[in-house]
Design goal:
The structure holds 2 protein chains of 2 kinds. By secondary structure, chain A is of the alpha+beta class. Chain A is built from 8 helices and 20 strands. The longest helix of chain A is centred in the middle third of the chain and has 18 residues. Chain A is elongated. The chains are: A alpha+beta, B mainly alpha. Chains A and B meet through helix 2 of A and helix 8 and helix 9 of B.
C-alpha cells in the first residue's frame, strides 16, 4: 500500500453561498481510529457524508483505497455509517435490519441469517433477533446499528455522533464497546462528535474543525497539551489564555509579565495557554514564584473528585483551575475571596499570534 | 385500569355521540329494519318478513352486479394507487416544500366543482366524435367506443378518487424519514431498489389507507357507472336506484344497501388490519 486508506485532497463543499468545508486535506490510515471534532456547523458531518458519498465535493478529490470516489455512488462504496438517529428500518426485525447490507449484495438467505445472528451474538443482542426495532432500548438499538454496519466487513466505518442520544453511563459503556471492536477488527473508524471526552477517550488521532476548516490534527494528548491555535486552545479542555507582547524571554500582559516557555520574536503578539491542571492556587503570595497572578473566586464546579474553580483577575481575564477535591481542604473557598495563582514556566504553552 | 366516566370528557364527547346516533346509527338501524318490510299496492308496510332477502339473494342479476361492482372498485383502487404513485413520489422526494404545498392545494381544487360536472366533461373527451377519437382519427385510428363501457366507468372512478389518492400518498411519502433512504443507499442499495426495499414498506399504512379510500368511494359511486359506463351492467348503487323506482321496492333496495355496508365493513377492517400489522418474524 503506497497510499493511506483514505485521502482527502483539497476537498471543498459549498451549499450555495455557504462553504461548509474549505480545502480539507486529511489522510486516514488502515485500522486507525480518527475522531473529527468541532462545534455544530463546523463541517464535520458534511465531511463524513462526503466520505459516504451522500454529498458530492464541490472541489477536490476523495480517494479510498487509492481509488477516486468522486463519481462512485453511495451504494457502491462500502463505507457503512452509523447514524446519529440510527436510521434503523422500523418495518424490519432486528435480524432483518442486520441482514440488509448482505441482501443488497445478493448473499443467499441462509448465509445471511447465519452472519447476522453471529454479529448480534457478538454484540450481545442475540436474544432480540426477532424483535421489532422500536421495542428495544437506546443502547440495544445502538448495537443493532453497529451490527448492521459491520456485517459486510468493511475496511472503514463512519460514525456520526452515534452516542449523543444515550445516557451518560451508557456512553461510557458504548465507548468501551467501540474501542474494543475497532481493535479486534483492525478497521478504520471515522468518528464525528462534538464531545471532547468521546474523541479524546477513543481516538488515535483527533481532527479539530472550525468554520469549515481543519484547525488541527494530532494525537489527543498533543492537541490537549499543545493546541496549534487560539480556536483549539479555547475549544479543547479548560484553558486560560493570556495575550500580550513579547519582551525578551517574557510576555507583557495587562495583569503582569510572565516567563515564556519557548523563544519568540521580540515585540510580537503572543498567547500563553495555561491548562487548568497546571495552575496552583494558594491563599498567600509566594515570593519565589516566577509567574503569579492575584484573582478573585467567582464560582466553582464540583464533579465528583475533580473540582473546577473559576477566578477573575483584575482586568477581567478568567482563570480556570482544576484540582482534586481533596487538595481544596484548608483553602477556605468562598465567592469573592482573593487567591494567588502560580504556575511553572515550562508547563505553559506558547502560542504565537496567528490570524484567528 | 377501570375506565372512569368524567364529566369533562363527557361534555366534549357528547355532541359527537349524539350526532353519530342521530345521523349514522339511527338511519342504519332503520335501513336494516326496512329490509324486512313489506310492499303492498306500492305502499310500504312495517313487517318482519324474509321475503326481500330471499328474493334478492336468489337472483342471478344481483350477484352479477355484486361481483362486477366489487371487481370494478378493486380495479379502481389499484389503478388509482398505481397512477398516483409516480406523481406522489415526485412531489414527496423531488420537489421543494413550497412546490409540494401548492401541488396539494391544486389537487384539492377539483373538489370545488361538482363531481357530476367533471364527469360530464369526460363525455366531450371520450365520445365517438369526441376529442380523443378526433385525434386518433387524424392518424387513421379508431374510432374507439369508450363511453358506456367498463373503461368509461373506470375513467369516472379516477376522476372521483385520483386527486385524493395523490394527496394521501404524497403526505405519507413525505413523512418518511429521509435518513432511512440514505441509510439504505449507504448499505449498498441502488436507487431503484429503495422503492421496494424502503419506501413502500415504510409507507405501507398510508398507501393502504389511500387505496381503501379509492375503493370505498368507487364502490358506492353512482355517477361514473351510470353516465360513463351506461349502467351496463348495473353496479350496486344503480341497482338500488332502479329497485326503488320499480314499484317502490324500498325494502329490496335496503337489502342491497345492507349487503354493501357489510362488504365495506369487512374490506375496510381487513385493510386497516393489514395496514397496521406489525410483521411477525419469519
Amino acid at each position: 500500500m503506497s497510499e493511506p486508506l483514505v485521502v482527502l485532497d483539497g476537498v471543498e463543499k459549498r451549499f450555495g453561498d455557504f462553504t461548509a468545508v474549505r480545502r480539507a486535506d486529511l489522510t486516514i490510515d488502515e485500522g486507525e481510529f480518527v475522531a473529527i471534532m468541532g462545534p455544530s456547523g463546523c463541517g464535520k458531518t458534511t465531511t463524513l457524508r462526503m466520505l459516504a458519498g451522500l454529498e458530492t465535493p464541490s472541489a477536490g478529490e476523495i480517494r479510498i483505497g487509492g481509488r477516486s470516489m468522486n463519481d462512485v455512488p453511495p451504494h457502491a462504496r462500502d463505507t457503512p455509517m452509523v447514524w446519529q438517529s440510527l436510521a434503523l428500518f422500523p418495518f424490519l426485525t432486528v435480524r432483518e435490519n442486520v441482514e440488509f447490507g448482505l441482501k443488497m449484495r445478493g448473499i443467499a438467505a441462509a448465509a445471511r441469517k447465519a452472519r447476522a445472528l453471529d454479529w448480534l451474538d457478538r454484540l450481545e443482542i442475540g436474544d432480540f433477533a426477532n424483535r421489532i426495532v422500536d421495542t428495544l432500548s437506546g443502547g440495544q438499538r445502538q448495537r443493532v446499528a453497529l451490527a448492521r454496519s459491520l456485517v459486510t466487513e468493511p475496511r472503514i466505518l463512519l460514525l456520526d455522533e452515534p452516542l449523543s442520544a444515550l445516557d451518560a453511563h451508557l456512553v461510557i459503556r458504548m465507548q468501551g464497546v467501540l474501542t474494543r471492536l475497532q481493535r479486534e477488527l483492525g478497521i478504520a473508524f471515522v468518528y464525528v462528535t462534538h464531545s471532547h471526552s468521546e474523541a479524546f477517550a477513543m481516538a488515535d488521532r483527533v481532527v479539530i474543525m472550525s468554520r469549515g476548516e481543519i484547525a488541527q490534527v494530532g494525537a489527543p494528548r498533543a492537541i490537549y497539551r499543545a493546541p496549534a491555535n487560539r480556536f483549539v486552545a479555547e475549544f479543547v479542555g479548560r484553558n486560560t489564555i493570556l495575550t500580550g507582547t513579547v519582551e525578551g524571554a517574557a510576555l507583557r500582559t495587562p495583569i503582569g509579565t510572565f516567563a515564556l516557555p519557548a523563544p519568540a520574536t521580540d515585540g510580537a503578539t503572543a498567547h500563553l495557554v495555561l491548562a487548568a491542571d497546571i495552575l496552583h492556587i494558594a491563599r498567600a503570595a509566594d515570593p519565589a514564584a516566577r509567574n503569579a497572578v492575584e484573582a478573585r473566586l467567582i464560582s466553582e464546579e464540583f464533579v465528583g473528585s475533580i473540582v473546577t474553580l473559576f477566578l477573575e483577575a483584575a482586568d477581567g481575564t478568567e482563570f480556570k483551575v482544576q484540582m482534586q477535591e481533596r487538595a481544596l481542604t484548608g483553602l477556605d473557598l468562598h465567592a469573592g475571596g482573593r487567591f494567588h495563582l502560580t504556575w511553572a514556566t515550562d508547563d505553559a504553552h506558547l502560542l504565537p499570534e496567528v490570524p484567528a | 385500569m377501570k375506565p372512569r366516566l368524567n364529566a369533562y370528557a363527557l361534555t366534549f364527547r357528547l355532541p359527537i355521540l349524539i350526532w353519530q346516533a342521530l345521523f349514522f346509527l339511527g338511519p342504519l338501524l332503520f335501513m336494516i329494519a326496512m329490509s324486512f318490510f313489506l310492499v303492498r299496492n306500492y305502499r310500504m308496510e312495517e313487517a318482519f318478513v324474509m321475503k326481500n332477502w330471499e328474493r334478492m339473494l336468489s337472483r342471478g342479476f344481483v350477484w352479477d352486479s355484486y361481483w362486477y361492482t366489487l371487481g370494478m372498485a378493486a380495479l379502481a383502487s389499484l389503478t388509482a394507487s398505481l397512477l398516483a404513485f409516480p406523481a406522489a413520489f415526485a412531489l414527496a422526494f423531488r420537489t421543494s416544500e413550497s412546490v409540494r404545498r401548492w401541488a396539494i392545494f391544486l389537487l384539492v381544487i377539483p373538489f370545488f366543482t361538482s363531481y357530476l360536472v367533471r364527469t360530464f366533461s369526460w363525455y366531450v373527451i371520450l365520445a365517438e366524435s369526441g376529442v380523443i377519437n378526433a385525434g386518433l382519427g387524424a392518424v387513421g385510428l379508431g374510432p374507439f367506443t369508450m363511453l358506456n363501457t367498463a373503461f368509461g366507468t373506470l375513467v369516472g372512478y379516477m376522476t372521483l378518487t385520483l386527486p385524493l389518492v395523490v394527496i394521501l400518498q404524497t403526505v405519507t411519502l413525505a413523512g418518511i424519514d429521509p435518513s432511512l433512504i440514505q441509510a439504505a443507499r449507504n448499505l449498498g442499495c441502488p436507487p431503484w431498489r429503495t422503492i421496494p426495499s424502503v419506501v413502500l414498506p415504510a409507507a405501507k399504512t398510508g398507501m393502504v389507507v389511500a387505496a381503501l379510500f379509492a375503493f370505498i368511494l368507487s364502490f358506492g359511486d353512482f355517477v361514473a357507472p351510470y353516465y360513463l359506463g351506461g349502467s351496463k351492467p348495473p353496479t350496486l348503487p344503480i341497482l338500488i336506484i332502479d329497485t326503488t323506482k320499480a314499484g317502490q321496492q324500498w325494502p329490496r333496495a335496503a337489502v342491497v344497501a345492507v349487503i354493501m355496508m357489510v362488504t365495506l365493513f369487512v374490506i375496510a377492517f381487513a385493510a386497516i388490519a393489514f395496514a397496521y400489522r406489525r410483521r411477525a418474524s419469519r
